[in-house]
Amino acid sequence: SQNRIIARGKEVGVVASGMTFQYAMEEFKEASILKLGLSYPFPDDLIREFAHNYQELIVIEELDNFLEEHIRSLGIKTKGRDFFPGIGELNPDKVAQGHDRIENSSVLLVEKKVDKEATLLPARPPVFCAGCPSRGLFYALSQIDCVVSGDIGCYSLGVFPPYERLDTILCMGAGITVAQGMDKAGFRDKPLIGIVGDSTFFHAGMTGLLEISYNKGISTIVIVDNRATAMTGLQDHPGTGRTLMKKRTHTAYPEDFAR
Ligand code: SF4
């Protein structure tokens, strides 16, 4: 099963998923951990069984308290969002501070986890893979005085050095619709270029392209089509020719929608 229990202490149980599992392992060394590798559908029986064994159940999750709300709906008392912030990413410091607050009921925000030597390590921001064709695209765009709107995918990396060639990044599909929005708002100072990947195009970009066609937009849209959902794990999409269950199906081509 993707869900497993790391049995350690007998008093405190911690439910965590994804990155927060690592934080829980590091910070709650005396606690047992229920690691949810497949959090939905909720493994209710496993959660009940786990909670039953501990006096205190702590839930650590980023952003919305999705797991905690569900666990509480099972009638189980938890400590979670009141102690760990729901805005931004968690990190070892924030989890340690939440742990302090649970144990001491204090609101002291003591930075204590970041190893001083770690701050001396060179930063390694995400970059395009070596040989990625997007490198050439963003280099070319960096030579043009234009406004480039992007959205979510590998091509978001164009915002970082050395290219720094995305002016906007918003939700999926916004590479197209922001360009169209600026066009319709009357922006004429520079050419408008929208970037979208194939997976994002099929997910949320097609309607934006239709809108440009329908309302006679003048922006230029570039679809970076690598036939893959590259950034998030190679999930299939309508352009890969396979269903999500890996069965053969029709292959959609972005250019067919653009004609
Ligand atoms: S995974 Fe993303 S960054 Fe790497 S080669 Fe593919 S599109 Fe480029």
Automatic annotation (TrEMBL):
Pfam families listed in its UniProt record: TPP_enzyme_C (PF02775)
InterPro entries found in the cross-reference section: HACL1-like (IPR045025), THDP-binding (IPR029061), TPP_enzyme_TPP-bd (IPR011766), Transketo_C/PFOR_II (IPR009014)
Record key words, sorted: Metal-binding
Domain Thiamine pyrophosphate enzyme TPP-binding: 151-258
Alphabetized GO MF terms: catalytic activity; metal ion binding; thiamine pyrophosphate binding
Keyword Lyase: no
Protein name in the entry: Thiamine pyrophosphate enzyme TPP-binding domain-containing protein
Taxon lineage: unclassified sequences, metagenomes, ecological metagenomes
